[in-house]
Write a structure and sequence with these properties.
Layout: E1 19-33, E2 37-38, E3 47-54, E4 56-61, E5 64-69, E6 72-76, E7 82-86, E8 90-103, E9 106-108, E10 114-117, H1 121-137, H2 140-164, H3 170-181, H4 189-195, H5 200-211, H6 215-233, H7 238-244, H8 250-261, H9 265-272
Antiparallel strand pairs: 1-8, 2-7, 3-6, 3-8, 4-5, 4-7, 6-10, 8-9
Helix pairs in contact: 1-2, 7-8
Length: 274
């Protein structure tokens, strides 16, 4: 069965994603390349990423296909072939890299592939320009940070779409509302379960079924998402953001954020702020 364009979920039974790490194997940038068709004879052993800067490219990854244009990236897992057909003159970046992803401390398969569109073109342009110059001007490690960030972007957008899904169960809908209202307070699985009058074990099972992630994973992801937004959208100090988000101090917030995001808050702000 063919999956619609842009669908990027790889599997539904994977535990909640929390972090990833990349190791760059190869990188190329091609500008103003004439129309072409390219289908490798064999799949790569590692992950590949096509970053489309200009033009129009038809792609196929396994049973997923569509068109990519400026502002899109296409992610292909090991063991699959990334077929591409440039329909116009194109400019793009292409990276091959090792990828390890984790749920807390447990290693899991990275759960998404296919096309991902950046929500804002300005954000994509900053990312593409930094990636293009990262190895020559800074370091390969910085290139890997940028690749990590693109992967986090994919996960964030998928998570946001899941969170925007309306809970059909009234108790779970109320739990979600309660979590959003108190995400920077002392909200927990227990307090959310108590709020809707359920035993914690029963609440966890129902929440997982309804929202596709555990209550604790949902809370942690939402909290990090809001902290990341404060880093990008404000010039507030880390100490101020720590107090706003319920952390003891900037040092503790930095430890939590760096562990989850594999980069410090200051690095995240530097990469994302336009």
């Amino acid at each position: 069965m063919k999956t619609r364009e842009g669908e990027s979920s790889r599997m539904s039974a994977v535990p909640p994603f929390t972090s990833c790490a990349t190791k760059l194997k190869r990188y190329i940038h091609l500008a103003q390349r004439n129309a072409f068709v390219y289908s490798p004879d064999a799949p790569y052993d590692d992950w590949t990423m096509l970053i489309c800067e200009d033009g129009l490219v038809e792609y196929r990854v396994g049973n997923r296909s569509g068109e990519a244009r400026a502002g899109d990236i296409v992610l292909c897992p090991p063991g699959e072939v990334l077929h591409r057909n440039a329909l116009t003159i194109v400019s793009f970046q292409f990276a091959i890299f090792e990828l390890r992803s984790f749920s807390e401390e447990k290693e899991i398969p990275f759960p998404y592939y296919g096309k991902h569109s950046f929500p804002q073109m300005s954000q994509f342009l900053v990312f593409a320009e930094k990636l293009k110059s990262s190895r020559e001007l800074i370091s390969e490690s910085y290139t890997e940070h940028l690749l990590n960030d693109a992967l986090y972007q994919i996960v964030r957008e998928k998570t946001i779409r899941q969170k925007q899904k309306k809970a059909t169960d009234p108790a779970m809908a109320e739990a979600v509302r309660f979590i959003h209202q108190h995400v920077f307070d002392e909200v927990s699985t227990k307090s959310a379960a108590d709020h809707v009058g359920m035993y914690q074990s029963q609440f966890t099972r129902k929440f997982q079924k309804e929202m596709g992630t555990s209550p604790s994973g949902y809370i942690a992801g939402l909290r990090l998402e809001k902290i990341a937004a404060l880093l990008v959208e404000t010039d507030d100090s880390l100490e101020k953001i720590a107090h706003q988000s319920g952390y003891q101090n900037a040092y503790y917030l930095s430890r939590v954020f760096s562990k989850a995001m594999k980069m410090s808050p200051s690095q995240y702000r530097r990469i994302h702020q336009v």
